């Protein structure tokens, strides 16, 4: 009986266990889909938009010779400014350089009656001390003065120093004696010693007429003066006496001789001229092609009107050796790509600069400053044109010193420094950049929802509104990633436009499933950032001091809620 | 009658197999002194019979259990659509601990005999033992459910253990002696031939999401393997020229290899009677090692740098998508490189056997009725595993021994078991048990099962049993 009970116990235990199987638990056909929604948070990318991305100052400087980017500091803080330096040496050649037509002088001095010298010598007379002098020493010297006509340009020469010029005296006599022409002048002086000019020329000897003699006028100072017969001051005074040495031919028995000479004056080349020199105007023109400004890398981002620059400054310095007062008449303008010109200086300016007080001196005029708004540059011109005029005019000279000029060596050194401080306002500057659409969007099939977590840091003193536009294969925008553009506060600035500190903030944006669908459709993503410079604490929008390393950092991580079914 | 019982038992055995029930049945065998296999768990447990032997199917012990999760933790009734089932990933993840595992083990006694001489009992036993343990973390499931937003912002895909496998054939000689009326002791010595060993030295893999600016992944694997069946060759898992293969050996080589993997182990046991009704016992089983030499291979990281970070990419606005894609691809490439594995030849190494410790208490509270308690644990590769307490009621009669009870463990507190030994010259064992984390007998709530079957032949009555009977 016990064995039967035991057997039954065992059997019943087995049946009990088997009966504990619920077949429905193993009905795998009834398994329904299970969905889990894991959240995957992962850093995606970090991108930095720098000022240089659309306004590369270094590149701009590299492409324009003479253009520099300089760090500056004023009482309100640091800033950068573009500086364009230019130095021109202008040779002024419009002053009278040469006096061409000086009328020759043909002189028949005298008919001289020479006594029987042999007889006189036989009488024991010392002929060496008894020359014949004409005109007689008791009377005035003979006049060989010649006239120099002033140019018709109004120049009135008071005096000149010649670099080249001569007087050729060709004797015309058969006198068989040593005959000398003694010249002196109250107009001619040594330019070096200021000693009056005097020179003796032999016209004949015992054999008769001599060849021509030349008097070099170079390095002589010629002071124009009146002549007794004319009422003007255009004469070069030249006086003479003839001296006939009777002892030179003691065998001469007497006779009449004519003594004459032709005085020819070559063109006179002027080294330095004093007087009332003509008013002259010298154009100084230069065109700078602003290659970088017209570069597509800039024009694709910056449109005319996006930038509002505080000012543009011009600093002029002039150096000249001309002893005449000068004026600078600047005309600075830009030329845009369509040929439109815009004046940089809204007011006409006449800038006087200092003359050289004395020959060899330098008239120096430095730090002549002009300032203007920079509207013409804000138009992103293609060219920047210097169209200056330098005007010399003796009438304006108040110094009391004689005016002078070196016709062959007159110059003006003109140095200009154009500076453009990088203090500006940005108005709706739109930065756009294309990126290929995500190619791994297949993975988005398993996305339920998502959030983009962005850390945005800006040392850029400009508020920015950013968004990603979704474009199709034709480039047509059909949606944006964010329904509303994300606004990034620019780095705060003080009332002087100094950046106080980079501004960082976290922004989260939820991406709807519809956006994911559109992301899949998108051919490209167009990143857009619209920039406007920051306001100060008072709400005013000062000109902001930009730094070339200004940046907006976008650090994006994604938090995606998956939708995985199995 | 015997035929009916036999057929019924076979049917019962088959039905158990069919539903895969589980338990700690073998714990009950510890107290079945009418079975010669009791000595396998404590050499101081002297068989009741004077002589025993078995051949081929002496004892088969198959065990599978998890660290506590059940079928219902994976697939269960949908809470809304109650006529449907669902994969309950979240429920499973909540159920899982930081470290989880599957255990498979199989022990088969192939040949054994023993005899008692006076107060002494000698026995020989040849058996095959296979033990395996596969560990995993809940990190993978946390990742599926929470993604990177796990509560502690990191996940571990491996917990350092990964897998341990040990298989050998043992020749055991045991000796037990009744020292006096109260004390019995036993020792056993085993000569082992290793078949397969997998020893995880290091297996760490995980992701760290705590830094919001980067994801850090690391993976470090170092596994020693040895087996008699063939060689493992891995040059890469992820490389474009990756190649991994297993080259099997001929049977004669397998035998030669097994001979090379020599090992030695000891069993120690003692039993002390407090009085006529109560007895304490203790045993240490498989205290030993195997020196592995056959086809030794170390599977390790192919590259020295095993840490990869993904930190987003610095890119210009116009290259965002390509930049991210490139960065992601680079990260995956780096991850593949960092986690890539290769096999290298490994010299001989020694691995300790999983050593079992048993502490038993037995109370014969009335006639044939007994109450048993057994505290067991296992030391494997420096880790304590599978600690449990079995409390059993047992009926020990002349022809039948029956035990039912429950095993308590940290993985599951409801682990009922039953063990039956029919004794009529031949001992026929049948036992089964299962684990359940609830008080349900539904197999879908079971986290493991244990099935013990076997047959041995025992004759005569041993001296100590005679003494007990006389008493």
What is this structure's SSE topology?
The complex is a heterodimer of chains A (566) and B (471).
Chain A: H1 2-19, E1 31-32, E2 35-36, E3 39-50, H2 51-54, H3 57-63, E4 67-74, E5 77-92, E6 98-99, E7 105-114, H4 117-122, E8 132-134, E9 142-143, E10 146-147, E11 156-164, E12 166-173, E13 178-190, E14 196-205, E15 208-209, E16 213-216, E17 220-223, E18 225-227, E19 230-236, E20 239-245, E21 255-265, E22 268-276, E23 280-289, H5 296-299, E24 307-309, E25 312-320, E26 326-329, E27 332-335, E28 341-343, E29 351-353, E30 363-372, H6 375-378, E31 383-392, E32 404-405, E33 410-421, E34 423-426, E35 429-436, E36 447-458, E37 462-471, E38 477-480, E39 486-488, E40 503-511, H7 513-521, E41 524-533, E42 544-545, E43 551-562, E44 564-565
Antiparallel strand pairs in A: 2-44, 3-43, 4-5, 5-33, 6-22, 7-21, 8-20, 9-20, 10-19, 11-17, 11-22, 12-16, 12-21, 13-14, 13-17, 13-20, 14-15, 18-19, 22-32, 23-31, 24-34, 25-30, 25-33, 26-29, 26-31, 27-28, 27-31, 34-42, 35-41, 36-40, 36-43, 37-38, 37-39, 37-41
Chain B: H1 2-19, H2 25-29, H3 38-41, E1 51-66, H4 71-74, E2 75-77, E3 85-87, H5 89-95, E4 99-117, E5 120-137, H6 139-146, E6 154-159, E7 163-178, E8 183-208, E9 215-227, E10 230-236, E11 243-248, H7 251-260, E12 262-273, E13 278-292, E14 297-301, E15 307-310, E16 313-314, H8 320-339, E17 341-345, E18 349-352, E19 355-366, E20 369-380, E21 383-396, E22 400-409, E23 416-424, E24 426-436, E25 446-459, H9 463-470
Antiparallel strand pairs in B: 1-4, 1-25, 2-3, 4-5, 5-7, 6-8, 7-8, 8-9, 8-12, 9-14, 9-15, 10-11, 12-13, 13-18, 13-19, 14-17, 19-20, 20-21, 21-22, 22-23, 23-24, 24-25
Helix pairs in contact in B: 5-6
